[in-house]
Amino acid sequence: MTKSTRQPRTKILINSGMALSNVLEIPTSGFNFENVARNVALEGLLEGGQTKTPKPMKTGTTIAGLVCKEGVVLGADTRATSGEVVADKMCAKIHYISPNIYCCGAGTAADTEKTTDLLSSNLTIFSMNSGRNPRVVMAVNILQDMLFRYRGQIGASLILGGVDCSGNHLYTVGPYGSIDNVPYLAMGSGDLAALGILEDRFKPNMEMEEAKELVRDAIHSGIMSDLGSGNNIDICVITKQGVDYIRPYQESEYKDKRQKRYKYGPGTTSILTEKIVPLELEVVQETVQQMDTA
Amino acid sequence: MERHLMDSQIKGVSTGTTILAVTFNGGVIIGSDSRASIGGYYVSSKTINKLIQVHDRIFCCIAGSLADAQAVTKAAKFQISFHSIQMESPPLVKAAASVLKELCYNNKEELQAGFITAGWDRKKGPQVYTVALGGMLLSQPFTIGGSGSTYIYGYADAKYKPDMSKEECLQFATNALALAMGRDNVSGGVAHLVVITEEGVEHIVIPGDKLPKFHDE
Question: From CA B144, how far away is CA B176, in angstroms rounded?
């Protein structure tokens, strides 16, 4: 996999009254944990009884997948929670990895998004370099290496499903980096409810329609029995011929109707006073880099 | 919505487990159960594979944190392959066990995984090595490991005989696994057995209901 070389960004610090300093910041690769220290310091400041730092958005979730005769069926609910509040009612939990591989994510929403994005980018570069379609087992190995390296700090529990030249595959990847190859699977906070349905009705080599219904029923059971799962059901069907991403496969019967339009046009808030302060910038250093377009 | 982790020492998925390896006349049998658990109360997989092939005639079985064990065996597989290519000959079982031991010992702060390495090589024939949690390497004629092994020390010590035949050894290993799986809550599922000899490798799977029963009414 090739790493692209980027030009270092120049950050210009403006010091009130004093001379400017030019700070060269070379971007580091990988994840940056600087904000962890910042958050701890902030919490110390806010501890005076006022606001607490917002809880990270989790997909308190039900996700499921199974391998059937013609391919792989993945399913997920669409609720994302932040503490006890539903932060997103139509969250997309089935992420694109490559044309033949999709991934459902449970755990911290940001972690699953970024991890699957990174994986998708890496696999695309690999496809371009090698001229081959990526295999599911390769995606799983990359995920395992990365999650293990972060020792469980990345809260991503993933279900990876896909069809490649070696068959139909379904893998589970845990947050600490453990993997398992299975014919059917459920994860997330609603997994026990969903697993009950899957254990009862799963058969090897099911027909496509039966498989879609089974996944739907499993997610539905998770939605009914778990507070962290809810709203609509997404289904993604991957076969040799292509992918059918049905979003939503089933809408929640408890959809509420908006009473009015909640959009505010410009001019709703009146401007009382206006003050313009010109910023005086001093040019300290000017460099000209020739671009070679020969 | 948050499920609380019970007081299990291992974070994430653990192979709560029974593993064993026994030498017999002409080969070695390595066996394990197939259960992976989280927190000692939830079985996250009934069919996990704990017998990892690290080379043609060398297998290793894993106990402890599943993530740690899978990562270590991945690294070990690569290193053993590379070593074998450099030496232009199949690796010795002791070499494979040493690779695992180095990884476990040098990273003992971060890792929580133990291994049993067993195999056949031209120099010493069938061998069994234990790599414990902190990186201790020990060679024994037979060994048992994992949380379920505590229930079968008596049985193993009493029933093991050196130079058994393949059938006697299979019976010994099956019985030992069945007894441990019957008493340990974090061991269960199916029994996986691999018979390694000079001729090749034979994988036997015994489903839970076909295991020998011991007063199980």
Answer: 9
In terms of CA atoms, which chain B residue is nearest residue A229?
B1
Q: Does residue B216 belong to any structural domain of this protein?
A: no
Q: pLDDT tens, A43-63?
A: 777 665 555 666 666 657 899
Q: Do B71 and A148 touch (CB under 8 A)?
A: yes
Mutate to test the interface with A, among B10, B14, B70, B72 (most CBs of A within 10 A): B70
Q: Which CATH number belongs to the domain containing residue B104 in this structure?
A: 3.60.20.10
CA distances from B96 to A113, B63, B70, B126 (A): 38, 17, 15, 13
Q: Mutate which of A150, A176, A185, A187 to disrupt the B interface (most B C-beta within 10 Å)?
A: A176
Whether B76 is in a domain gets the answer yes
Q: Please state which of the ranges A11-25, B27-41, B135-149 shows the lowest mean pLDDT.
A: A11-25
Q: Which range marks the domain in which residue B82 is found?
A: 9-210
Residues in a beta bridge with B175: none
How crowded is residue A181: how many other Cβ atoms within 10 Å of its Cβ?
A: 18
Residues of B whose CB is below 8 A from A155? none
Between the alpha carbon of residue A49 and those of residues A37, A38, A43, A46, B37, the distances in Å are 21, 19, 11, 7, 40
Taking the CA atoms of chain A, what radius of gyration do you get in angstroms? 24
Examine residue B3 and state whether it is found in any structural domain, yes or no: no
In angstroms, the CA B79 to CA B60 distance is 14
CA distance A184 to A193: 14
3-class DSSP state of B108: coil
Per-residue pLDDT of B72-124, as tens digits, reads 999 999 999 999 999 999 999 999 999 999 999 999 998 999 999 999 999 99
**Domain total in chain B:** 1
